[in-house]
Amino acid sequence: MISVEEALARITGAFAPLPGETVSLNEALGRVLAEDVAARVTQPPADVSAMDGYAVRAQDVAQVPVTLSVAGYIPAGGSAGDMLGPGEAARIFTGAPLPAGADAIVIQENTETEDSGVKVLETVTQGRYVRPAGLDFRAGDIGIAAGHRLSSRDVGLAAAMNVPWLKVHRRPRIAILATGDEVVLPGEPIGPSQIVSSNGFSLAAFVTACGGIPIHLGIAPDDRAALGSLAEDAKGADLLVTSGGVSVGERDMVRAALGDKGLAVDFWKIAMRPGKPLLFGHVGATPILGLPGNPVSSLVCAALFLRPAMAVMLGLGQAPAEIETALLGAGLPANDKRQDYLRARLGKDSDGRRIATPFERQDSSMLATLARADCLIVRPPLAQAARAGDKVTIVPFQGGILTI
Ligand code: AMP
Ligand code: MG
To answer: Considering every ligand atom, which ligand is closest to the CA of 243?
Structure first.
C-alpha cells in the first residue's frame, strides 16, 4: 500500500500536456490556453472621453461660469477634428477621441447651452474624464498567459484584444468502462439481485465537468475475455478508467483481463478510505486507472486522482492542493493507518466560522450522502480522536473538486 501523496505524484508524473488546437472565441470558454495571448490593438486606441459632455482646455474653465464657443462635434467612432483653440470646446460623447489641445471633459450635466456656445458651470482638473490611449492595454501586452483556463471575462478580453482564434490544449479523451455481472444500465430490465450502474454516468459527468471528453465503453461482465476485449476499445483514448472488479475477490477480473493484454502495473493499493483498491498502470501506450466499484469510492478517487491527471493533460499543471480548514461539528474516533475522507455538510456557527459535520454513516455504497455532502473531511493516517470544535482539513466541493 502506498500513501495518497505518493499515488498522486506517480499518477500526475505519468502524464504530459496534450498538444494544442485552435478554437474560435465562441468555443473557448473553459478551455486552457496553450500559448500566451498578446493584444493586437491598443485599447483605447487614442485619448477618449469617458463621459458625454464637452472637451475643453482645463485652463479655460479655471474660473466659472464661463462661456466657450462650440468648435466641433465628435460622436463615438467619429474623427477628433481640428485642434481646439483657446476659448473653444467640442461637443463629445463617451468613447469619442479628444481633439488635440483638449485635456479634460466637462460633463454635460455641468453645462447649459447658449446661442453663443456652451456655458460651463463647474471647473475641471486636467485629465478629468479622459481615458488615455492604452489605459486598458497596449498592442503587444500579454493579456492572458498560457496555462490559464478561460473564463467568460477572458473570452471578452481576447475579443477586445482583437484575437479571434485561440490556441488551447486538446481535451483529454477518457474512456470509461464499468464492470460487474450485477450492474445494468438505467432503464434496462433489472433482476432481483441486480443494481443500476451509477459509476459510468457519474464518471462521465465528472470528466465533462473537468474539461474532458468521456467515451462510454459500456458495462463489461465479470469475465476475463469479455472484459479484456471491451477494454481494447480504449485504444486511442488518453486514459482508460474502469470501475469495479479491481479488488482481491476471485470475481474481480480487471487486473487479470488487462494482464492478458500486457498490463504493466505501477501500483494497485493506496492507504486510503474509501478506495483501497486502486490500480494504475499502462497497457501499451494507454494509461489505465482502475477505480473501485463502490459509487462513493469511485467518485472520491476520481476527484483525488483522475482530476489531477486531467489537469496535467489540459495544461493546467500540477497545482498544489489548496488546504482549507473547518471546525468539526461532531467528535471523531482515532483513525487507523489509512487516510480517511469523510462526507460532511458545511454550515456556519453564530460567529460565522465554518463547521463541518460528518454524516453518521460513511459506507462507501451510500451515494445519496455524497450527493448531499458539501465537502470531505480529511483524516490523516493515525490521526488521534477529535472533538467537536477541533480544526480539520477539508476538501470543499463548491468551487472545488466535485463542484458539478
Ligand atoms: P467491486 O469492486 O466490483 O467488487 O464492486 C464493489 C461494489 O460496487 C459492489 O457492491 C458493486 O455492486 C458496486 N458497483 C460496481 N460497479 C458499479 C457501478 N457501475 N455502479 C454502481 N455500483 C457499482
Ligand atoms: Mg464487481
So the answer is: 1
pLDDT score recorded for residue 32: 97
CATH T-level assignment (fold) for domain 4-17+171-313: Molybdenum Cofactor Biosythetic Enzyme; Chain A (3.40.980)
- Indicate the top mutation candidate among 177, 183, 248, 370 to test ligand 1's pocket, ranked by most ligand atoms within 8 A of CB: 183
Angle of the 307-314 helix axis to the 4-13 helix axis, nearest 10: 30
Q: Which fold has domain 48-131?
A: Molybdopterin biosynthesis moeA protein; domain 3 (2.170.190)
Tell the burial category of 301 from Cβ atoms under 10 Å away from its Cβ (0-12, 13-18, 19+).
buried
Predicted local distance difference test score (pLDDT) of residue 316? 94
Whole-number Å distance, alpha carbon 254 to ligand 1 midpoint, is 13
Ligand 1 neighbour 295 (Cβ under 6 A): yes
The torsion angle over the Cα atoms of residues 359, 196, 7 and 386, rounded to 10 degrees, is 10
Distance 191 CA to ligand 1 centre (A): 15
- pLDDT tens track for 60-103: 999 999 999 999 999 999 999 999 999 999 999 999 999 999 99
> What pLDDT does residue 400 have?
55
Pocket test for ligand 1, best of 181, 196, 199 (most atoms within 8 A of CB): 199
Q: Whose CA is nearest to atom 18 of ligand 1?
A: 197
Euclidean distance between CA atoms 245 and 183, whole angstroms: 12
Report the topology of domain 21-41+139-169.
Molybdopterin biosynthesis moea protein, domain 2 (3.90.105)
Q: Measuring CA to CA, which residue among 352, 351, 373 is closest to residue 362?
A: 373
Look at residue 340 and give its three-state secondary structure: strand
Residue range(s) in the chain whose domain bears CATH number 2.40.340.10: 324-399
Residues of the chain with CATH 3.40.980.10: 4-17+171-313
Residue 378 alpha carbon to ligand 1 centre in Å: 24
The CATH number of domain 324-399, selected from 3.40.190.10, 2.40.30.20, 2.40.340.10, 3.30.70.100: 2.40.340.10
Distance 263 CA to ligand 2 centre (A): 19
pTM, two decimal places: 0.92
pLDDT tens sequence across 258-299:
999 999 999 999 999 998 899 999 999 999 999 999 999 999
**Nearest atom, ligand 1, residue 294 CA:** 8
| Residue 225, helix vs strand vs coil | helix
